[in-house]
Amino acid sequence: MRHDAADLVIQPVLMYSIPRRREGRSWRNWGGVQTDEAVEQEINRISQELKQLCDSAEFGMRSLPVVKATNPQQTAALKDVEADALVVYAAGAWTDTLDALVDLGKPLVVFLRERSGPYYLWHEIIHARFLRSHTDQLSHPRMDVNDVVVDDSNEMLWRLRALYGLKNTIGRRIVCIGGPGGWSCREAPDRARERFQLDMATVPIPQLAAMIKASRKNASLMAECRKEAETYLRPKDVRLVTNEKAVAEAFLLKRLFNDLMTKHDASAITTNGCMGSYAGIMPCLTLTLVNDTGYMAYCESDFVVIPSGILMHFISGKPTYLCNPTYPHDGRMLFAHCTAPRRMDGKNLEPVDVVTHFESDHGAATHVKFRKGQLVTVLKPDFGAKHWLAFTGTVVDTPELPTCRAQIDLKLNADTQDVLANMRGFHCMLAYGDHMRDVAYAAKKVGINVQIL
User: What is the domain count for the chain?
Assistant: First the structure.
């Protein structure tokens, strides 16, 4: 489900020191990697562990050979290494060496050993000497306790998954039908560019309308779209409420969206000004279809929330659903829009009623029967691109209220009053599963604080 994603390339670095015995006085720090033989054994251990980690990851990741560092000067050679992140195995050496690695400007995870191999010095000293710099407060400007892992490779894996998601979000190109925008926030596109360097390719609505009108004159193309619609509607868990023509035109628009993404070398698309339709086509079902093929598709061109959707998509490997929130109460919260993906778990299509877009009562949209009991992550970004709210809930219902069609009623795992007190922005982004920790770790790297409830 992660189209056009690039592998995360990691550079492992073994920090160590080889002390010399001095009779009658202290001559070594704590640690079990203090001889040439121990260093070579540790490099072999690290290499084997990283191979297993890369092989087991459900996302693309590869490791470069282990590099040694005993002093700051030896880190200079890493400046031009084509790696996305450093994994520092801090067996020894001193704070100036780790500072030099941090100064390379790449994301950095420190791995410490207590019981998983020879003991590492930095298991003792990293908090007081480095993160707090001999003070009582965490004071390092670029690292904190979340960048340190002890013994557990799975703890390192989720951090690397977060960095993988961030790598594939930064600089991502997205086609913007009608141009980029922001829900009640004109600054949203500029803030998305500033935080994530998103590349927004505008396609004017008249240009798309002309493409639609020309395509309707292509009899063979329209026949193919009608056939695709018939196939889509055939399964027993798909119920048609609108008309087949609207579904066929949704498949026509899907082809045009795919063509535009190919033309602009993009794997994401968003629609602005769509409440008035594009040459008579409401894009709702089309956005569902695009999402279900592993690309990203969002309505309303709202760059307050779209960056969170792209990031969570690449972290989770699943579609993300842009939707409207409602007022939470009694431990529950309703979300709704007309563009929900069906392949929410990244593999299987959920049952669906194919209905009209609610506000226009026109075209084709989805009332997805979200899986009851399913855990869902909710991200709610602020207008200022500084603070995102994250919480989870469990699907308890998919009602049919007079609102946008794809309605998902969640039993909140967070306290209702806490959600009410901390909501910012407007639109939310939803995905199956719990991705709060990964999203928070990645977002912090670009200056966004994620508050987890």
Answer: 2
Cα 152 from Cα 112, distance rounded (Å): 9
Mean pLDDT of the chain: 97
Check whether residue 82 and residue 121 sit in a common domain.
yes
Amino acid at position 141, single letter: P
The pLDDT, as a whole number, for residue 194 is 97
Q: Is residue 1 part of a domain?
A: no
Residue 239 lies in a domain: yes
61-91 residue pLDDT tens: 999 999 999 999 999 989 999 999 999 999 9
Residue 254: give its domain's CATH number.
Answer: 3.20.14
Q: Give this prediction's pTM.
A: 0.96
How far apart CA 308 and CA 319 sit, in angstroms, is 12
Q: Which domain holds residue 261?
A: 170-452
- 195 touches 307 (CB < 8 A): yes
* Residue 320 and residue 343 in one domain: yes
**In the prediction, which pLDDT does 377 show?**
98
Q: Is residue 274 over pLDDT 90?
A: no
Sign of the dihedral defined by the CA atoms of residues 122, 125, 127, 133, in that order: negative
Q: What are the pLDDT digits (tens) for 289-306?
A: 999 999 999 999 999 999
Residue 58: burial class (beta carbons within 10 Å; 0-12, 13-18, 19+) = exposed
pLDDT digits (tens, 9 = 90+) for 7-19: 999 999 999 999 9
Query: ∠ CA 366-218-275 to the nearest 5 degrees?
Result: 35
Residue type, position 66, single letter: V
CA distance 136 to 115: 27
Residue 55 in contact with residue 46, Cβ under 8 Å?
A: no
Sign of CA dihedral 431, 433, 435, 437: positive
Please name the residues in contact with 214: beta carbons below 8 A apart, sequence gap of 6 or more.
Answer: none
Angle in degrees, CA 275, 278, 282, rounded to 5? 55
Same domain, 164 and 174: no
Q: Are residues 181 and 39 in the same domain?
A: no
Residues 347 and 377 in one domain: yes
Enter the DSSP assignment of 212. Answer: H
Q: What are phi and psi of 70, to 5 degrees?
A: -110, -10
Task: Compute the Cα dihedral for 119, 8, 79, 99 and give only its sign.
Answer: negative
Residue position matching structure tokens 């409602």 = 326
**DSSP assignments along 383-407, one per residue:** TTSSEEEEEEEEEEE----SS-SEE
How many Cα neighbours within 13 Å face the side chain of 52? 9
